[in-house]
Amino acid sequence: MSALTWFYLAAGGWVLAAAAALAGRGAPRLIHTACVLSGLAGAAGIAGGASALWWGNSRVVSAGGSVIVGTLQLQASSLAGAFAALLGLVALAIAAYAFRYHEAGPHTAIYLAVFNLACLGCLAVLAAANVVTFLVAWESVALLCYLLILRHPGRTDVAGGAFWFLALSETGFVLLVAAFVILAAKTHSMQLDLIATRAHLVPAGWRDAAYLLALTGFGFKAGLVPLHVWLPEAHPVAPADGSAFLSGLVVNLGAYGIALFAFRLLPVGPAWLGLLTMGAGAITAAIGILYALNERDLKRFLAFSTIENTGIIVTAFGAAMTFGAYGQRALWAFLLLAGLYHVANHGTYKTLLFLEAGVIEHTTGTRDMDRLGGLIHRLPRSAVITLIGTLGIAALPPLNGFVSEWLIFQGLFQGFRTGSHLVGILIVVAAATLGLTGGLAIYAFVRGYGIPFLGMARTRQSAEAAETGQPVAGPGLLAVACVALAVGAPLVVLALSRAVGTVTGVTLRPDLLPGNLTIIPAHTDFSAFSPTYLTVFLVAVTVVPVLIYLSGRPGADSVTVPVWDGGMVTFRPRMQYSAMTFSAPTRVTFDALYRPSVSMHRASDDPAGRSGPVHYETEVTPVFQRYLYTPVVRAVEWLADVIRPMQSGDVNVYLLYLFLVILAAYLIGAL
Amino acid sequence: MALWFLRGLRRGVVTTGYPARSDDSAARLPTPPAFRPAALDRSTADRLVAVCPSLALRREADVLVFDVGACTACGRCQDAVPGAAAPSGEFELAATSRAHLVKRIPLLREAGT
Amino acid sequence: MTDGDPALSSQQDQPGVPPPASGSEPGPELAAGRQLSERIARQFGRSLHIRTLDTGSCAACEQEIRLLAAPHYDLNRLGFFFTPAPRHADLLMVTGPMVRAFDVAARKTYEAMPGPKIVVATGACALGGVYQPDAFVHGSVAEILSVDVWIPGCPPSPLTLLQGLLVAVDRLAEKVGGLSFAADETQEAAQ
């Protein structure tokens, strides 16, 4: 079956799921039916995405047609195929999760209906073949996600977080509309295929302007710094599967948009555009992970980690554009492949981590890392699944994060092939920034896994968490997918290289997979890597010595004694690391970025120990809110105050305005 | 590097040769006392027992029980009854059994002489 | 000396019994003990790692122990080394009267040492002198640990400590068991 057929099946499944949820008005049986239908639709989405990746762009299907709003046109393009497969996987996992997570009720029914329609909207964005379809689908996704975040409107900060999301989404949307309108006007066509064919006729200045508008507009959704501010506000307040959907998919739609403009719609542009994109990505990655290290709230921490991964993806895309500008077509295609691979990986493990954060919040009642601890004993299955996701996101071999980051690094290290010293140095600086990010990511996720799961429970809620009844199938499926994306890397690279071949016209496969299990980054004289062999090797190196030990001669009599702990008599949970002290070295090293403010207040002036309670508070300055957004908001408010006198409420004044405008239009038309 | 090396060459080896050779400083160490049985009778023994601050001495009938392990070599027993105790000069005091450190000294002096 | 097995003890502890003179028939326990001590002397003869443990002393013993590492006494030339980790230690050198608040930690330190291991009680406090048992101290290290070698002194000088360590690894014979601390006329004349 063609990819479009699969997409229709998926769309139908999601519509039916939404209908089932609404029809039941919260009856448990129909909610479960809705989840099952949603999962089936997700599976169809995976099939459709894989099919689109493999077989290339499908034909364009048109429906309806009206002079004013244009036609609905759909196409399963291979660039969208990767994202569609990810959408299917994420939807399937969240459907399995939602089956057990939500309590039945009318609010849950509405929420699930909105969620399924949001999946449908995302599929429409990916399958859109003309500008109008894309923009309508994009805006509907934004509105539906806003409703998703507002699942519990009465709780603190929910309304604020949802508002941040909507406000920045709409700002980005304005820029997107501008970008698309420029291209559509200059190429005299609304259809994306035709725009792509005719784009080289558009003057370079307009092309660059369209790209910059698109980069900024999609950057709002993807989370490029300083447009990222909605992420840490919206993610903590959304329900677990809502945050997972946002981070796992909706943010990646921003990356899809950037890739759409950079690789499909526009021809290879000047090098400075690629360098700008790459620089924005590198800075985003570094700042994202630095702020992540400062968070106690699990979901805010994961939200900043999403920003970091977006930075990595955009760096890969930017470097690809730079290589393309210098004629290095193999590296151009290769870095696009690496970026798409990282999109898939990030979607998988970030969704997993958010779903597990939901499990933690549900069983312990808190998201604060400093109130957790020892959960590996209380929630063993969740601990194992979360560990796989954490190893993936920290980019440790042999899991999937390592594979995609290795590919990106290998592409960046070949910056010398551009022939320009300056550009080569800039690419190496970006690679160094990504290296810093990778190291900080390991640090951050040792903290993010170690503080809640390992050690002793810090509070009674954490000590009493129970795993019965918690969803395991959804996150478990994603854990299996993480391992599959790593061990099956040759297959993934094969499929993605076919997609990249369709998009860029560069065939990578002969250079990429000699012997089918080794990956070579675009040029054979540079390096080679086999994730499959590496996994086999690591497993063997771990397992074989254990087997030898177990089957060998009986050892000498051994005595089991407790671990040497310095002879301490009692160990209290408060003696452990807290999340903030573990990350204190970064606050010291990077204090120019954080600008922490410390306030301390003692109850009395007595000497230390007798002064009564001490109140100590330290806060990281919210640099972007304070120095960028607040001034802009104040400027807008000032402007609104200035304009307000025009709305006097007097009908006569309004008639005067009408007359003046018609007069001006007549004069302009006449001239 | 140079100065301490030259100084060391001038002074020579200062490390003690113990246990292969005897150490001169051993003669100046404070050591547990050795008691003269001929100078001890019940009353002097009781005086010695009363004056010892670390309870190393006790009297059992006509034997002065001296616990070398509890002795701090403070010298008060020598000051209290001169002639009854003198420094033994023994500094090699390690024992493999606690009982080896408990010494029984007979009280041989006739009361009144 | 314990091989990790508390049932195996190398010496009898009867008051007043001197060590057997050479040539006499050793009892079966003493023979086993001598075999064990020979094996341990072979094992520890070349290198011994010492872990010091302060169970509440005034630190005068610790100062003398520190001097062992100084150039004048230099215990490293005899193959002795200090280590802070009980897991790496062969010999536990205990000072202080075993304050009650510390006994669990002392026990844990002892149990963290792998066998064979030796315990040396150092200083008059650890041997039971100076402090009587009360609400705060046990009075003697032997209340909590099984001690192999006892070193008297307050504090024991580094030479005494060296002799004690060498006795613990059977490189020197114990001397004090044969002393009487009773001066007689012939001894006085000789001095």
What does this protein structure show overall?
The complex is a heterotrimer of chains A (671), B (113) and C (191). Chain A is mostly helical and 671 residues long. Chain A folds into four domains: 1-129; 134-267, no CATH class; 290-550, no CATH class; 623-670. Chain A has 27 helices and four strands. Chain A has helices at residues 3-24, 28-55, 78-101, 106-127, 131-149, 158-187, 192-198, 204-222, 230-237, 240-265, 271-292, 298-325, 329-364, 375-378, 380-393, 400-413, 421-453, 460-463, 473-487, 489-504, 509-512, 531-551, 579-582, 584-589, 591-594, 623-643, 651-670, and strands at residues 61-63, 72-74, 597-602, 614-619. In chain A, the strands form two sheets. In chain A, strands 1-2 form a two-stranded antiparallel sheet. Chain A has a two-stranded antiparallel sheet with strand order 3-4. In chain A, helix 12 runs antiparallel to helix 13 (329-364) and helix 13 (329-364) packs antiparallel against helix 15. The model of chain A has no long low-confidence stretch (mean pLDDT 90). Chain B is an alpha+beta fold and 113 residues long. Chain B has one domain (29-113): Alpha-Beta Plaits, CATH 3.30.70. Chain B contains three helices and five strands; from the N terminus they run H-E-H-E-E-H-E-E. Chain B has a three-stranded antiparallel beta sheet. In chain B, strands 1-4 form a two-stranded antiparallel sheet. Chain B starts with a helix and ends in a 7-residue tail after the last strand. Chain C is α/β, with parallel strands linked by helices and 191 residues long. The interface between B and C is large, with 47 and 55 residues.
Could you give a short description of this structure?
The complex is a heterotrimer of chains A (671), B (113) and C (191). With 671 residues, chain A is mainly alpha-helical.
Task: Give the topology.
The complex is a heterotrimer of chains A (671), B (113) and C (191).
Chain A: H1 3-24, H2 28-55, E1 61-63, E2 72-74, H3 78-101, H4 106-127, H5 131-149, H6 158-187, H7 192-198, H8 204-222, H9 230-237, H10 240-265, H11 271-292, H12 298-325, H13 329-364, H14 375-378, H15 380-393, H16 400-413, H17 421-453, H18 460-463, H19 473-487, H20 489-504, H21 509-512, H22 531-551, H23 579-582, H24 584-589, H25 591-594, E3 597-602, E4 614-619, H26 623-643, H27 651-670
Antiparallel strand pairs in A: 1-2, 3-4
Chain B: H1 2-11, E1 33-35, H2 42-51, E2 57-60, E3 63-67, H3 76-80, E4 85-87, E5 102-106
Antiparallel strand pairs in B: 1-4, 2-3, 3-5
Chain C: H1 28-44, E1 48-54, H2 60-67, E2 80-82, E3 91-95, H3 103-112, E4 118-122, H4 124-127, E5 149-151, H5 158-168, H6 185-190
Parallel strand pairs in C: 1-2, 1-3, 3-4, 4-5
